[in-house]
TrEMBL record:
This is Ribonuclease Z. The keyword tRNA processing applies. It catalyses: Endonucleolytic cleavage of RNA, removing extra 3' nucleotides from tRNA precursor, generating 3' termini of tRNAs. A 3'-hydroxy group is left at the tRNA terminus and a 5'-phosphoryl group is left at the trailer molecule. Residues 19-218 form the Metallo-beta-lactamase domain. CDD domains: arylsulfatase_AtsA-like_MBL-fold. The lineage of its organism: Bacteria, Bacillati, Actinomycetota, Actinomycetes, Mycobacteriales. Its cofactor is Zn(2+). It comes from Mycobacterium intermedium.
Length: 279
């Protein structure tokens, strides 16, 4: 069984009730954070997960809403880890991730210096290990394997999706992408697919061109559902609702997906939890 918790179902627009894009995956005793939007660690705390308990941070791409709290994850992972010889935080993302992590460490350089000066048992900067990938296997330990494949969020490039397998169960996290063959292949036969969605039928009618632009590099609800259908996925888990999913609108969004996808459809608020069984 793989357990999925939508930590943040929001978007770049701050929302009082939705944290930024982030998903927690627990599999075979390991804990993965996929993207780290604003408020991610507050939401993780609500389900008993602390930064020091992460097995790895997986980044689908380097858009600000998906990495807004990267500094918080790195620094909090460091200062709340009381192991005598702390393991590095593994960060797996597309090329560019190393540069972003190094710049983040630099941005927090004063903080890191203060803490090393103050605490006798902190004598090195946060231990971080960055792995940049666009395709292929990226993780294989203690019963969990992860592979990545390119997605299509151009002009944001490269971007990647993740497929996590454990205990015979499989879960794919698409991130932001338009439908593409490599995502279809990555998601093929998966028990679950976490996909970001936007409402093109709504955004296409707002007056601001900058908002309209959002449509050309994301999947609509219907497109995400069609991807799930083509790939033969068991459960589609929609997140990153643009515009925000309002109270009482769940059935409308669900109906749009159900027109394209015959499997189980999940959506909801932050902390919505889904279990993906072996299949
Ligand atoms: Zn994006
Ligand atoms: Zn996004």
């Amino acid at each position: 069984m793989i357990e999925v918790t939508l930590l943040g179902t929001g978007s770049p627009i701050p929302d009082p009730n939705r944290a930024g894009p982030s998903t927690l995956v627990r599999a075979a005793g390991q804990v993965f954070l996929i993207d780290c939007g604003r408020g991610v660690l507050q939401r993780a705390a609500a389900v008993g997960v602390g930064a020091a308990g992460l097995s790895a941070l997986l980044l689908t791409h380097l858009h600000s809403d998906h990495i807004a709290d990267l500094g918080d994850v790195i620094i909090t992972n460091w200062v709340t880890n009381f192991a005598p010889d702390p393991q590095p935080l593994h960060i797996i993302g597309p090329p560019g991730t190393r540069e972003v992590v190094e710049a983040t460490l630099k941005a927090f350089g004063h903080d890191i210096g203060y803490r090393i000066a103050h605490h006798a048992d902190l004598n090195a900067p946060p231990p971080v290990e960055v792995h940049e990938h666009t395709e292929g296997p990226v993780w294989d330990r203690d019963g969990v394997t992860i592979r990545v494949a390119p997605t299509d969020h151009r002009p944001v490039a490269p971007t990647i999706g993740f497929r996590i397998e454990a205990d015979g169960a499989s879960l794919v996290l698409a991130g932001d992408t338009v439908p593409c063959a490599s995502l279809d292949e990555l998601a093929s036969g998966a028990g679950g697919l976490v996909h970001t969605v936007i409402r093109k039928d709504i955004l296409g009618h707002v007056p601001q061109q900058r908002v309209k632009d959002v449509c050309d590099y994301h999947s609509s609800v219907q497109e995400a559902a069609a991807t799930a259908q083509r790939a033969g996925v068991g459960t589609l888990i929609m997140t990153h609702y643009v515009p925000p999913l309002g109270p009482g609108q769940e059935d409308q969004w669900r109906a749009l997906a159900a027109a394209e996808f015959s499997g189980q459809i999940e959506l909801g608020d932050d902390l919505h939890r889904v279990e993906i069984a072996a299949r």
